[in-house]
Amino acid sequence: MFNTTMDELGRVLIKREIRKQLGLGKGTKLSVSVEDGAVVLRKTEKTCAICKAEIDKDSEIPLCKECIDRVKASK
Q1: N- to C-terminal Cα distance for the chain?
Q2: Residue 50 near residue 67, CB atoms below 8 Å
Q3: Contact of 44 with 30, CB cutoff 8 Å
Q4: Looking at the 3D structure of the chain, how many domains does it have?
Q5: Taking residues 22-28, what's their average pLDDT?
Q6: Which residues, including other chains, have CB under 8 Å from residue 47's CB and lie 6 or more apart?
Q7: In this structure, are 10 and 30 located in the same domain?
Q8: 4, 40: one domain
Q9: Same domain, 57 and 73
Q10: How confident is the model at residue 10 (pLDDT cuts 50, 70, 90)?
Q11: Looking at the structure, do residues 13 and 34 belong to the same domain, yes or no?
């Protein structure tokens, strides 16, 4: 574990060793959530083509369940 400080623009530095270990590089998409009072960052592999929500990595269709349901309902 390491300590860091948020800058005036709300940015937080993640040490190079951790970025390398997790495969995080420039342009890597991350989802941000709050869980039990902690900020949690997760690498986002696949996102919905409509709403950009995270989708199952094994999904063959680039849409989340909610958007699939909306598309089906609009027919």
Answers
A1: 51
A2: yes
A3: yes
A4: 2
A5: 87
A6: 29, 53, 54, 55, 62
A7: yes
A8: yes
A9: yes
A10: very high
A11: yes
C-alpha R_g of the chain: 16
Tokens representing residue 40 in the block: 């949690």
Instruction: Enter the tokens of residue 22.
Output: 């997790």
Measured CA to CA, the distance from residue 63 to residue 59 in angstroms comes to 8
Q: Which domain holds residue 64?
A: 45-75
Question: Which amino acid appears at position 61 of this protein?
Answer: I
Residues 51 and 26 placed together within one structural domain of the fold:
no
Average pLDDT of the chain is 88
**Structure-token pair, residue 31:** 């989802």
CATH of the domain at 18: 2.10.260.10
Count Cα atoms within 13 angstroms, Cβ side, for 49.
Answer: 7
Type and span of the H or E element at 22: helix 16-22
37 and 53 share one domain: no
